[in-house]
Write a structure and sequence with these properties.
alpha+beta; 5 domains; 7-stranded mixed β-sheet; 6-stranded antiparallel β-sheet; 12 helices; 19% helix; 27% strand
Length: 596
């Protein structure tokens, strides 16, 4: 229910005057002339006009008061959110060598500046994603069964049904095109992604192997936007909406011994997750030169069969394959729809750094205010110095000690920041110190944020610090950029805040938030209040048990059963989304997540 701002008094001038005149007969019956010529009526008209003006001003609650009401309720306006994204570097020319790109370099998308959040070793390789895709429904599989049963006569048992696939190259969208999600469950026959690491055209395969051996390959993974399009109220991203992935490479002991189709082996590679959020980056540790290889010169009937990598028809691509990476989700029940996978990836954020800005000079007066030139400001990035002393940022100046408090004198050198307006406020001497007369105020900070940072594919294409000859691009649109919340939008959040504040209260709250868990396909959610399955009799005050069933389960299609990763994601959702600022238990309530 929407909270309407009450009207103190909505009477008009005519209504006030008419009401006053009607009372004359009750309180002063001898007053009989009620025309405009009567001096008493003139006084009442003046009174009615002044009263209407007063009521109008009373009903117009000033914006400052409205903000104060929000503060008293504890509802803070959300600041601007910086857009995030992922970029891929490529070194298309020159000697095949790894080039290190440092973190924090500036990249440009028109007039918007982005900054890399991690360093990356750009390896001289290309990556192509292949799938063992499902056949078109119109294909005559019966004829294929007959043909391939004859070809694989020695390997196919009597009555055994063969599973067919078509090698599909995963094409990424170009600028202006809509995202096409890769759904492992719906698009593949093996629930796997096959990444071919290729040498650049013209490079010597053995030289490239030597350059990338024992190096870290940065693999970027972005889920389909449709799977994680929900923005948390705080502007924070979920811990990770991408399922954990495993990376494996072909395990080949001797190329002279051709593998048996059904026993092709793979070896796991160490893959460290170095970022969280909607897009993630894995650092995959590549093996030494001897183990960077793939099966070659296979018989035509063996290529792509069983657990071998997909067969490739393009001879140029086949000759450039250094090795294959087999990529599989650690859990088959989490959402496995991807928008992009690629190498030499680094996360970026719309952010610009101001290394030094002279904000102004102190006047020695109480409550001095100054404004930074660029907004909105990242609060955690602000470093402020007044002359040679560093001052500390606080949320409330009124709790700061005064200048005369000798025991806490150091704690008096504080300031308050309004990140949206870039305004710096200092104390009055009694609560927080005052910058002295003539003192130089110097600030170092970063700024950025807003919807303008949500740019399309390929918009990030240059940067003054990008090494010469190297290319950079964003393969997917950037996301999460949002302008600062308006006062009206903050007021619209009051009803939901009054309903449950930072807690989950009703069964509807638990069910709604659990169903919105990023990266998970929920089939059914049931909420059992005051129930704890580990307690005798099951009843426990303050406990809430949430029963969840996945939408799909390949192992048990008729009766889906959640696995550990699915339960962990579901159990984390109520806490993370109800109170994104504090990832703690929900107001003392015990929340468990169980299968149905």
């Amino acid at each position: 229910m929407k909270i309407e701002i009450p009207s103190i008094d909505d009477r008009t001038y005519r209504q006030i005057l008419s009401e006053a005149v009607s009372r004359i007969r009750v309180h002063n019956p001898e007053w009989t002339n009620h025309s405009d010529a009567d001096p008493g009526i003139t006084v009442l008209q003046l009174f009615a006009s002044m009263t209407e003006s007063l009521l109008y001003r009373s009903n117009k609650i000033p914006e400052r008061n409205r903000k104060k009401f929000l503060n008293l309720l504890g509802v803070e306006l959300l600041g601007a959110v910086a857009a995030r994204g992922i970029v891929s570097f490529q070194s298309p020319r020159g000697r095949p060598a790894a080039i290190t790109v440092a973190p924090g370099i500036e990249l440009l998308a028109g007039g918007r500046t982005f900054s890399t959040e991690l360093g990356v070793d750009v390896l001289p390789v290309e990556a192509q994603i292949y799938l063992k895709g499902k056949l078109d429904p119109n294909v005559d599989t019966a004829a294929l069964q007959t043909l391939y049963s004859q070809l694989y006569l020695d390997a196919v048992a009597a009555g055994e049904t063969l599973l067919f696939y078509q090698t599909r190259l995963r094409e990424h969208p170009r600028p202006g095109e809509a995202e096409v999600a890769l759904d492992l469950g719906a698009d593949t026959v093996d629930d796997q992604i096959w990444m071919a690491l290729l040498a650049r055209p013209g490079d010597d395969l053995d030289e490239v192997r030597r350059q990338i051996a024992n190096r870290k390959l940065s693999v970027g993974v972005v889920p389909a936007l449709a799977a994680t399009g929900k923005r948390l109220a705080s502007g924070l991203e979920s811990e990770s909406s991408v399922p954990r992935l495993t990376f494996e490479r072909p395990k080949i002991e001797d190329q002279s011994e051709q593998p048996i189709v059904d026993s092709a082996r793979y070896e796991g590679l160490e893959a460290r997750l170095v970022t969280t959020g909607r897009a993630v980056v894995y650092e995959v540790s590549l093996p030494d030169v001897a183990r960077l290889d793939t099966w070659r010169d296979l018989p035509p009937t063996d290529e792509g069969a069983a657990s071998l990598p997909p067969s490739l028809e393009d001879d140029d691509v086949r000759d450039r394959v250094i090795t294959w990476l087999r990529i599989r989700p650690a859990s088959g029940q989490l959402d496995t729809r991807f928008g992009w996978l690629g190498v030499n990836a680094a996360p970026v954020i719309q952010r610009s750094d101001v290394p030094a800005e002279t904000v102004g000079r102190g006047s020695g007066e109480p409550d001095q205010t100054f404004k930074l030139q660029k907004t909105p400001v990242f609060p955690e990035s602000v470093e402020l110095r007044v002359d040679d002393r560093r001052w500390t940022q606080v949320d409330d100046l009124h709790v700061a000690p005064g200048e005369a408090d000798a025991e806490r004198a150091e704690d008096a050198f504080v300031f308050r920041l309004d990140p949206g307006r870039g305004e710096l406020t200092f104390g009055d001497g009694l609560h927080g110190a005052r910058p002295a007369l003539g003192a130089t105020i110097l600030a170092r900070y970063a700024y950025g944020g807003g919807e303008a940072g949500n740019v399309g594919i390929g918009a990030i294409a240059a940067g003054p610090q990008v090494p010469a000859g190297m290319r950079v691009t964003n393969p997917v649109p950037t996301w999460s950029g949002a302008d600062a919340e308006s006062l009206e939008a903050g007021e619209r959040r009051i009803p939901s805040w009054l309903k449950h504040r930072d807690r989950l209260v009703s069964e509807e709250d638990y069910e709604k938030i659990t169903n919105e868990t990023p990266g998970v396909r929920m089939g059914r959610v049931d909420v059992l209040p005051l129930y704890a399955p580990t307690m005798p009799g099951g009843r426990l005050e303050g406990a809430v048990t949430v029963l969840v069933i996945p939408a799909t389960d390949r192992a048990h299609p008729d009766a889906p059963r959640p696995d550990a990763a699915f339960l962990e994601a579901g159990a984390r959702a109520p806490v993370a989304q109800a109170d994104p600022h504090h990832r703690s238990s929900t107001s003392g309530a015990q929340t468990t997540c169980r299968s149905g």
